[in-house]
Amino acid sequence: VKDFLSRIEARKNLNAFNFVFSEEAIKKAEEIENKIKSAKHGKLAGAVIAIKDVLAYKDHPLTCSSKILAGFISVYTATSVQKLIDEDAIIIGKTNCDEFAMGSSNENSAFGAVLNPIDESRVPGGSSGGSAVAVAADLCDASLGTDTGGSIRQPAAFCGIFGMKPTYGRVSRFGLTAFASSFDTIGPFAKSIDDIALILSVISGKDENDSTSVISDFIEYPIKHFNNQKIKIGIPKEYFAEGLDEEVKQKIFEVVDKLNNTGIEVSEISLPMTEYNIATYYILTTAEASSNLARFDGARYGYRSKQSGTLEEMYVNSRSEGFGSEVKRRIMLGTYVLSSGYYDAYYRKAQKVRRLIKEDFDKAFTQVDLILTPTTPSVAFKLGEKSGNPLQMYLSDIYTTSANLAGIPGLNIPIGINKERLPIGMQILSKHFDENKIFQISSLIN
Ligand code: GLN
């Protein structure tokens, strides 16, 4: 813990943490050391873990990197965080992120941007940028992030580490501040696939506080590394079309060759609805966000405007001053697509397209076990490069949103670096609750 704390201090400029719990973590480490001595310790005894600042942790601040939650202290602990604590993990702090998890670069934060530790002039990805950087820069052993449209997989790719978005429903969302409830998932970042599997096995399971969580097949840990059983892999041709960086593409095909050489069957497949992913994602998630974020009214949580003479003034001024511009943009878009004149044209239609996207995957998984794609169209881009152009920024998620639309799991695997020594990531997708298969194959890749 002390080692990590001194590194956190030394790399403060990365801005990965919103809050560090130094004294508490040191005290906890001493307690756990004693538990280890008496051999009565949990599965994560001594593991030092950081959590994204959208997860509730009782008696600790919860800001979602937004001014509107300034000063708010959680009154309960998220189930996923409690499960880590119950297995004797040490929570070292809360990580920076895009405001309410909306973004792909971690530049939309009231705490300021997070820097990529590999090249500090570049973004770490987002929204869980702080969680990815905390692991990549060795500021903790592992971390939790959230993934609504790519926010674990994309920053993992930009920082060169593993990051897993589990099947929707595998991990309880209780205590996660809702962005788009039917898309939101919680998952781990780590430097090894074994750590990913271990943490996922700990945080999974049915929770009576989240009715969408399910009793799921358990995660095999230790992982049964590839045991030569027949696994078929599909490469969706739509994910290798225009817009994909050449070096990223080349690295992916090196991996495909490697798999081919071990006798694994790799074939081209088609996911014809791919072109509608981004539009469908942004209609549905903004709709859900506009409803979820209505609770931040200046009355209940955190920030209240000083100009709150009337009730209406309190609402309008607290929200105008408390939310950042990306969050406001999403609330407006979401309110628009849900409004009575446009509901059928946008929201209802997008719900139907979401079903078709899911059916694309259902069909593909009758032909193959796993789908392999790039995680991102490019390597980490420069700070400020896309922040003035929201549409460009939204395209960073072109390969990741589909898994959230369909509810399936996805893992980022670091597969190498480009000429500028920037990390390149590859995504593996499986059908619902087939995470074990993803883990098995990943040992062959990295
Ligand atoms: N970058 C995407 C967005 O801005 C995904 C965010 C996320 O997964 N939380 O919505």
List the helices and strands and how they pair.
Elements: H1 2-10, E1 17-20, H2 22-37, E2 48-52, H3 79-86, E3 90-95, H4 129-136, E4 142-147, H5 153-159, E5 162-165, E6 185-190, H6 193-203, E7 232-236, H7 246-261, E8 265-269, H8 277-292, H9 311-322, H10 325-338, H11 343-367, E9 370-374, H12 390-394, H13 401-406, E10 410-417, E11 423-430, H14 435-445
Parallel strand pairs: 2-3, 2-4, 7-8, 7-9
Antiparallel strand pairs: 1-3, 4-6, 5-6, 5-10, 9-11, 10-11
The structure holds glutamine.
Glutamine (GLN) binds next to strand 4.
By CATH reckoning, the class would read Alpha Beta
| Spatial extent as radius of gyration | 21 Å
Number of domains: 1
Average per-residue pLDDT, rounded, comes to 96
The CATH H-level homologous superfamily: Amidase signature (AS) domain
Largest sheet: 11 strands, mixed
DSSP strand tally: 11
Strand order of the largest sheet: 1-3-2-4-6-5-10-11-9-7-8
Helicity range? 25-40%
Structure commentary:
- The chain has helices at 2-10, 22-37, 79-86, 129-136, 153-159, 193-203, 246-261, 277-292, 311-322, 325-338, 343-367, 390-394, 401-406, 435-445, and strands at residues 17-20, 48-52, 90-95, 142-147, 162-165, 185-190, 232-236, 265-269, 370-374, 410-417, 423-430.
- The chain has one domain (1-446): Amidase signature (AS) enzymes.
- The longest helix has 25 residues, at 343-367.
- The relative contact order is 0.14.
- Helix 8 crosses helix 10.
- The chain starts with a helix and ends with a helix.
- Strands 1-3-2-4-6-5-10-11-9-7-8 form an 11-stranded mixed sheet, with helices on both faces.
- A hairpin with a 5-residue loop joins strand 10 and strand 11 (423-430).
- The protein is globular, with a radius of gyration of 21 Å.
- With 446 residues, it is an alpha/beta fold.
- Bound molecules: glutamine.
